[in-house]
Amino acid sequence: MQIGDLIRRAGRQFGAAPAIVDGERVVSFAEFDALTDRLGNGLLARGLRPGDRVAAAMPNGIDGVVVYYALAKAGLVRVPLNTRETAPEHAYKIDDSQARALVFGGDAPADVEFMIEAGELAGIIDAASPAPCDVRRDPEAPLRLAYTGGTTGKPKAVVLTTRSELAEVANFLVDLLPNLRPDSVMLHAAPITHGSGAFFLPHLVKGAPSIVLPRFTPAAFLEAATRHRATSTFLVPTMIAMLLDEPATSGADLALDRLCYGGAPIATSVLQRGLDTLGPVFTQLYGQAEAPLAITCLQPWEHTPERLTSAGKPYTFVEVALHRAVDGVGEVLTRGPHTMSRYWRRPEATAETIEPDGWLHTGDIGRFDDEGYLHLLDRRHDVIISGGFNVYPREVEDALLSHPAVAAAAVVGLPDEKWGERVTAAVVTRSPADPAEILAFCAGRLAGFKRPRAVEIWPDLPTSPVGKSLRREVRDRMTSATAT
Ligand code: AMP
Question: Of 77, 135, 435, 459, which sits 20 to 30 A from 422 (CA to CA)?
Fold first, then answer.
């Protein structure tokens, strides 16, 4: 089966019903099928060949979705670029993926053989053949390249295939969104280049529309969620915190059945506040670019107080194990058809990440509790070793975030002659606070070796465009400040 087959079938089954809504513009299932056929044909007619990489820097909206799935039908490899990133970041990915074409809005970040300005898409679609665009590709051939967050170095491209994409859709339908029907409604408030994009096909195959917001703000989210009676959405933890800080959220008349969240650790205090305000609709997913959004999930009814620190249980058809666990703690491994086939042009990194028998190293450290729930401690590279003890920054950040004045926290290890590394925190405060008082607050909550030795108050913390904390940058800033 090909991705195009799902689109064609949805076009036939759900015809004139709305498939994508973007402000006042609505595209039906049949129109979506026709638009993606035409654009796929138009791109091939321009001289692109199946297997060519096509970078797309498109904001959230109908055109972006049409481009993505036209590429799938034409056998072209999608390289999505997040429009929040800078031109040099885009240029790196365009060069690394050896993209032959670039579809872009605004200023072009690089010059490649085929430059397609977003404004030209309508003309290409009008001029193209309306015949079905149906390039059949090997299920193991690249379908799209997903760049990793780059929290530890230069972003690497993960090769995802038709096999992994279909498995992701199936995993979502079985575990994450088991109740989808034609009257379900997905609200895409996060970038579709990332996690939210994975929710498009599961809704499409069930005849449920996708509402696309150009940009997340709490007010825009609430307006669209109430107007369209959204039943599913995906938010990263930072967006949940912003939504909860919006006074209108608590009184909003929402129809949410599943508020899916993940992509980064969530502070327990934020999650608890979310449950109190929005009810038992939270569904956590843990995944990564290498195993897209499907390693474990925590169902709404599993959000009990003792499980709020857990990322849930393995998806039904996904294997999860721990590597070389000591005292029950080890690196999380996963195996199944959902995983990447390899890193793009990085055979050594692929060999380090995927075992010959298919187990994929996630780089995350975790432990299972007695009932089979996975608890993620931290990224392997971020673990601080202080006086011979492992300190997981996430646990320290969680303690800091339970302080009423602390809005954001990043904890890193700085070199220390005596202890090897010393736990140090940078925090952003929402009201005036005294670092000494924050340190004293931690004393009641964390064992001595985990407690920060110093807390610095910063105006903001470095984060990646999808809201991941960039601890490496925090550490670099702190070490260069001590060196000067
Ligand atoms: P990326 O490949 O950029 O999507 O980053 C994936 C990483 O984000 C994972 O390896 C985890 O470290 C982190 N992550 C994703 N989902 C969760 C979650 N639910 N809880 C904690 N960390 C998560």
Answer: 459
